[in-house]
């Protein structure tokens, strides 16, 4: 199993609005990219790339339901 590391680099003090929550994602010590979560979108920026990939929340929900692995919620 891969060893992933998630690091929050910016945490807003209030509910997410115009201020994004940003995660740096690493696998075995190498950065894979950054994940930005905002009120309107989820944005993935691969490491050393000029372009980001955007999904609104409805499209993200459709994608994760279609491609994700279903399991009982554990939180």
Estimated structural class: mainly beta
| Mean pLDDT score | 86
Rg calc: 14 Å
Tally of extended strands? 5
Number of domains: 1
Q: How many DSSP helices?
A: 1
The stretches of 5 or more residues where confidence is low (pLDDT under 50) are none
Strand order of the largest sheet: 1-2-3-4-5
Cα(first) to Cα(last) distance is 22 Å
| Biggest β-sheet description | 5 strands, antiparallel
SSE series: EEEEEH
**Roughly how much helix do the residues carry, as a percent range?**
10-25%
List the helices and strands and how they pair.
Elements: E1 4-10, E2 21-27, E3 30-37, E4 41-46, E5 53-56, H1 57-67
Antiparallel strand pairs: 1-2, 2-3, 3-4, 4-5
What do these coordinates show?
The chain has 75 residues and is mostly beta strands. The protein has one domain (4-67). Helix content is 15%, strand content 43%. The chain has one helix and five strands; from the N terminus they run βββββα. The chain has one helix at 57-67, and strands at 4-10, 21-27, 30-37, 41-46, 53-56. It has a five-stranded antiparallel beta sheet with strand order 1-2-3-4-5. It is globular, with a radius of gyration of 14 Å. The chain starts with a strand and ends in an 8-residue tail after the last helix.
Keywords for this structure?
single chain, 75 residues, mainly beta, 5-stranded antiparallel β-sheet, 15% helix
Short account of what is shown:
This protein is mostly beta strands and 75 residues long. It has one helix spanning 57-67; strands spanning 4-10, 21-27, 30-37, 41-46, 53-56. It has one domain (4-67).
């Amino acid at each position: 199993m891969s060893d992933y590391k998630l690091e929050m680099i910016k945490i807003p003090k209030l509910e997410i609005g115009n201020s994004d929550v940003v995660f740096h994602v690493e696998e075995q010590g190498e950065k894979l990219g950054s994940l930005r979560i905002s009120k309107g979108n989820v944005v993935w920026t691969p490491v050393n790339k000029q372009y980001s990939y955007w999904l609104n929340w409805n499209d993200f929900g459709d994608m994760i339901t279609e491609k994700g692995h279903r399991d009982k919620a554990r939180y």
